[in-house]
Specification:
385 residues, 21 helices, 68% helix, globular
Length: 385
């Protein structure tokens, strides 16, 4: 108990840990704003948050304002907004009832706050390594893909809740992890796989504490807090299914509506191979969008392998399912999905931070890359969708 208390005290962020991400909040906002002014010189500067709202962002804005549809929306590829899970848009909508700001402005500010919180709470998972923490803060708040975490996308909430889940798992707090997993499963469908991580971690903890696998099933079932945690963790998904059944008569509408985007369930390996071998026929183009998306998945699978090599089995199991399941429906949004996988980006930060020269090069690359990726964002590059 005394040692656990010491560990919690060490996990508490220092003033440096609290202040460093603020520097990247400022630098990231400046880079993205200047890119906005460069890409749209005639636009009113007050429309910055609105201009950053692209792709799925407009769906979330309408959800926060009006809730869920009961039928496909004209002008939106005959799709309904049931594909998008409710927790973050609902939270923005509720706060919007109290704070009279335009929805996209409120959501963007809330996303920046959430991203800052996600970085701070990741401190213990980064091994309290300053260089790794710096890279992670730069990636989330000021990096090439920071637009996902600073405008109205659910990825930022997914990162925060995933991080909190694994922080509580690292402390053996199954109920705390289950509470955040329940919210996670109401944020994106793959969030429900964190329930498996709770079970895997409990099994590993049993093996560590007893020194044997003997009697593991009875031993785990004899822990009421663990059993309660397993029941709580997928509640977000179950509540959403129940709501859809009540609202429109199809509890699995979030899955069925994927047809409107042309997604078909197939062999994920086939999708991956097809993407990797989709060579460009455009002179001067190094990689096609399909190859970029496929390479994002390959990097994700490699980092999942690193998690397994480090024997971080609960995180590896979650990451593997969160990659393979979306990949079975195609490569669309794969870069966004990988960017929001906190166990993977945290692992990448710890790997790169091992060498000082690579840390410096990577930090410069992250900040410089934010400029070019933001221009690509405004330019409609579909690899970023």
């Amino acid at each position: 108990m005394y040692q656990a208390s010491i560990d919690r005290q060490q996990d508490r962020p220092s003033a440096f840990v609290l202040l460093l991400p603020l520097l990247f909040v400022l630098s990231g906002t400046m880079i993205r704003f200047l890119a906005f002014r460069y890409a749209q010189p005639d636009a009113d500067w007050t429309n910055y948050f609105g201009a950053m709202c692209r792709w799925d962002c407009s769906w979330y804005v309408s959800m926060a304002q009006r809730g869920y549809d009961t039928f496909p929306v004209p002008g939106r590829v005959n799709a309904g907004n049931w594909a998008f899970f409710p927790f973050y848009p609902m939270l923005v909508g509720l706060i919007g009832k109290l704070i009279p700001l335009p929805t996209i402005v409120l959501a963007s500010l809330l996303s920046i706050i959430t991203a800052y919180a996600a970085v701070v709470v990741a401190w213990p998972l980064l091994g309290r390594n300053i260089r790794a923490y710096t890279l992670y803060a730069a990636f989330i708040l000021s990096g090439p893909l920071s637009m996902y975490f600073t405008t109205f996308f659910t990825e930022v909430m997914f990162v925060l809740l995933t991080t909190l889940t694994f922080v509580h798992l690292s402390r053996g707090n199954y109920l705390g992890a289950a509470g955040f997993t329940a919210l996670l499963s109401a944020t994106r469908i793959v969030g429900v796989f964190a329930s498996l991580s709770i079970g895997v971690q409990a099994l590993l903890d049993w093996r560590r504490d007893t020194g044997s696998w003997k009697g593991w099933l009875g031993g785990l079932l004899a822990q009421p807090r663990l059993v309660l945690a397993i029941f709580i963790s997928p509640l977000g998904l179950f509540v959403y299914v129940a709501f859809l059944h009540y609202w429109m008569g199809d509890g699995l509408a979030f899955s069925h509506v994927q047809r409107a985007w042309g997604r078909q369930i197939s062999n994920p390996g086939m999708y991956l191979w097809t993407g990797l071998t989709s060579w460009s026929t455009t002179p001067g183009q190094l990689l096609t969008n399909s190859q970029i998306l496929a390479l994002s998945a390959v990097v994700g699978l490699f980092l999942t392998g690193v998690l397994a090599w480090r024997r971080q089995w609960s995180a590896a199991a979650f990451a593997l399912l969160a990659i393979v399941i979306p990949l079975a429906a195609g490569l669309a949004s794969m870069m966004r999905f990988m960017a929001a996988m906190a166990p993977l980006t945290i692992t990448a930060a710890t790997l790169v931070a091992r060498w000082r020269w690579l840390f410096v090069v990577s930090l410069i690359g992250l900040l410089a890359g934010a400029w070019f990726s933001t221009l690509a964002w405004f330019g409609g590059n579909v690899a970023l969708v």
